[in-house]
C-alpha cells in the first residue's frame, strides 16, 4: 500500500469514528467498584476504628452551633473540649444520607447522576502556579487562567466536572477572589462547578450570584449547579472553625457540599496507610453528621482525601503508589456505605508533560476509578504536587481519562459479545474479521479512539514533523483558547451580574462586545 493510500484509509476510518454515535465507548458515570484493596475483614476494621475514634476521642474546636446540634442529638462535650460522636449518631448520618442525587450542569446535558459506583472525572486543586503555554516556565496563576481552564474543560468530553484548579492570585481580597472565582468558573463552562469559599461572610454573595445566574433562588435550589467544597477539619481530629461556619451557611443556602479531610501521612495523619485512612474516614464522617444535623436532606459528598508525604523531606508526594492505594481504599469505604464519594487522584509530582506525569497520573486515577469513586478530582491538568496546572495537560488527560473509563467499563462477557457464531463463520470462510459487519458495527461502540494520542506508523509520524504529545496538546489548546468562548451564560444575565457584582473579567476577555 502506498503512503497516500495509507493516509486516505486512515482519514476514512477517522471520519467514520468522528460521526455521532448513540452508543459511545465511554460515558459519564461508567460503573466501577470492582477494585477492593481492603479485604472484607479490613473494611470492617477500618469502620470500627473510625467509629471508636469518633465516640472515644472525638474532635476539638467545634463551633457553638455544632456543639448544640450534636449534644442535643446524643453527643457529649468533654472537659478538655472534645466533641464526641456516639456511633448511633454516626450510623444515623450514614443511613439517612442523600443518595442518587444529580449534580446539575447549567445545561441539562451536563448533569451528573451521583449514585452507586458511577465514576466521573474532574479537575481540582488550588494551585498557585501555571505552567505557561508559551514560555514553558511556572508563573503565578490569574483569574484569566481560571477562566481559560474552564473553557478548555468545557470542550473535553471525558472531563465531566470542573473543580476550581487554580487560585486567582491577581485578585486582592478574599471576598473578591471568591466571587470572581465563582463567576469565572460558571462563565467558562456549563458543566457542574465546585469551588471553595475562604470566609463565612462570602457565602451570601456566592449564593446571590448563583441565584442570579439560575433565574432566582428557587430555580437554583431545584437545580444547583455549584458545589461548595469544605475542608471542615484541620487534621489531626480538629475542626476548622471558619470552614464549619461556611459549611453550615452553604447548606442553608442550598448548595451541595463536599466534606473534605486532607491530612498528610506522617505529618498530620499517621505514617501508615491504614492509619491515615482511618483518621480521614473518621474526620469526614464527623462532617457528615454535622451536615445532616444542619439539614437532613443536605446533598453531602463523602470526600476523605488523605495525602502522602515523602518522609525523607516532609514535602507532599502525590505521585507514588502509596497515594494511589490510599485513594482506592478511601473510595472503597465510600462504597461500603453507598455514600456519594469523591477522591483525590492524579496528583503527579512531575513538573511538565513527560513520562513521570503520565505514569503517576494514570496509576492513581485508574485505581480510584476502578474502586468506584463518584468524582475523581485532580484527575486532569494538575501537576507539581498540587503547585501547578498545565492548560495543555487538560487536552492530553482527556485522552488518558477516556482510556481509563474504557477499562472501568470492562470486558462485558455476554453471549452476544463473545460472538461465537461470528467466529465460526469467519473460520469457515475468509479467515479474518476485517470485512465483517460485526466488526464495523462494534467499531465505535466498543473502542475508544484518542483525539491527540498518536497511533500512526513511525514513518508517517516523522513525515508529519515528529511532534511530541505535549507539542500537539499545546497546538490544540491554543486553538481552543483563540476561538472558543462558551455562550451558555445569556448576555443579558452577564450584563446584569456586572451591575450587581465587582466582576474582574472584562467582556472582551470572555469574547463578548462591550
From TrEMBL:
Origin species: Ruegeria pomeroyi
Pfam families: MTTB
Keywords recorded for this protein, A-Z: Methyltransferase, Transferase
Signal sequence, start to end: none
Molecular function GO labels: methyltransferase activity
Gene Ontology biological process: methanogenesis; methylation
Record EC number: 2.1.1.-
UniProt family annotation: Belongs to the trimethylamine methyltransferase family.
Protein name: Methyltransferase
Enzyme class per UniProt: transferase
Bias-annotated ranges (Basic residues): 1-13
Segments for region (Disordered): 1-33
Domain of life: Bacteria
Amino acid at each position: 500500500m502506498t503512503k497516500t493510500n495509507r493516509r486516505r484509509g486512515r482519514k476514512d476510518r477517522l471520519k467514520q469514528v468522528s460521526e455521532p454515535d448513540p452508543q459511545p465507548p465511554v460515558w459519564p458515570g461508567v460503573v466501577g467498584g470492582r477494585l477492593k484493596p481492603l479485604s472484607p475483614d479490613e473494611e470492617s476494621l477500618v469502620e470500627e476504628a473510625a467509629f471508636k475514634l469518633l465516640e472515644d476521642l472525638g474532635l476539638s474546636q467545634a463551633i457553638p452551633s455544632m456543639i448544640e446540634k450534636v449534644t442535643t442529638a446524643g453527643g457529649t462535650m468533654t472537659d478538655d473540649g472534645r466533641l464526641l460522636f456516639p456511633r448511633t449518631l454516626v450510623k444515623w448520618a450514614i443511613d439517612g444520607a442523600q443518595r442518587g442525587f444529580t449534580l446539575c450542569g447549567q445545561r441539562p446535558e451536563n448533569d451528573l447522576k451521583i449514585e452507586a459506583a458511577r465514576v466521573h472525572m474532574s479537575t481540582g486543586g488550588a494551585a498557585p502556579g501555571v505552567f505557561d503555554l508559551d514560555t514553558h516556565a511556572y508563573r503565578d496563576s490569574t483569574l484569566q487562567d481560571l477562566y481559560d481552564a474552564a473553557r478548555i474543560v468545557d470542550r473535553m468530553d471525558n472531563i465531566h466536572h470542573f473543580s476550581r484548579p487554580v487560585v486567582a492570585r491577581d485578585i486582592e481580597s478574599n471576598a473578591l477572589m471568591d466571587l470572581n472565582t465563582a463567576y469565572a468558573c460558571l462563565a467558562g463552562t456549563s458543566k457542574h462547578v465546585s469551588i471553595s469559599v475562604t470566609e463565612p461572610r462570602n457565602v451570601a454573595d456566592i449564593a446571590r450570584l448563583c441565584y442570579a445566574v439560575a433565574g432566582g433562588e428557587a430555580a437554583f435550589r431545584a437545580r444547583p449547579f455549584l458545589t461548595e467544597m469544605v475542608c471542615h477539619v484541620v487534621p489531626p481530629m480538629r475542626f476548622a472553625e471558619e470552614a464549619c461556619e461556611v459549611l453550615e451557611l452553604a447548606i442553608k443556602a442550598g448548595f451541595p457540599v463536599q466534606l473534605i479531610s486532607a491530612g498528610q501521612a506522617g505529618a498530620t495523619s499517621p505514617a501508615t496507610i491504614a492509619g491515615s485512612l482511618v483518621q480521614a474516614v473518621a474526620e469526614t464522617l464527623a462532617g457528615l453528621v454535622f451536615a445532616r444535623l444542619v439539614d437532613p436532606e443536605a446533598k453531602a459528598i463523602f470526600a476523605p482525601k488523605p495525602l502522602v508525604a515523602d518522609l525523607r523531606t516532609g514535602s507532599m508526594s502525590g505521585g507514588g503508589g502509596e497515594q494511589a492505594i490510599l485513594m482506592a481504599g478511601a473510595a472503597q469505604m465510600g462504597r461500603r456505605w453507598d455514600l456519594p464519594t469523591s477522591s483525590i487522584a492524579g496528583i503527579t509530582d512531575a513538573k511538565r508533560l513527560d513520562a513521570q506525569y503520565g505514569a503517576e497520573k494514570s496509576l492513581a486515577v485508574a485505581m480510584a476509578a476502578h474502586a468506584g469513586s463518584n468524582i475523581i478530582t485532580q484527575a486532569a491538568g494538575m501537576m507539581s504536587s498540587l503547585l501547578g496546572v498545565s492548560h495543555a495537560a487538560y487536552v492530553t488527560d482527556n485522552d488518558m481519562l477516556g482510556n481509563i473509563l474504557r477499562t472501568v467499563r470492562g470486558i462485558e462477557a455476554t453471549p452476544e459479545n463473545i460472538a461465537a457464531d461470528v467466529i465460526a463463520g469467519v473460520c469457515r470462510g475468509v479467515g479474518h474479521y476485517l470485512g465483517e459487519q460485526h466488526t464495523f458495527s462494534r467499531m465505535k461502540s466498543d473502542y475508544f479512539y484518542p483525539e491527540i494520542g498518536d497511533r500512526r506508523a513511525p514513518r508517517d509520524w516523522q513525515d508529519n514533523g515528529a511532534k511530541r504529545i505535549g507539542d500537539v496538546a499545546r497546538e490544540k489548546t491554543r486553538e481552543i483558547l483563540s476561538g472558543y468562548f462558551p455562550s451558555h451564560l445569556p448576555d443579558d444575565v452577564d450584563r446584569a451580574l456586572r451591575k450587581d457584582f465587582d466582576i474582574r473579567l472584562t467582556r472582551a476577555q470572555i469574547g463578548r462586545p462591550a
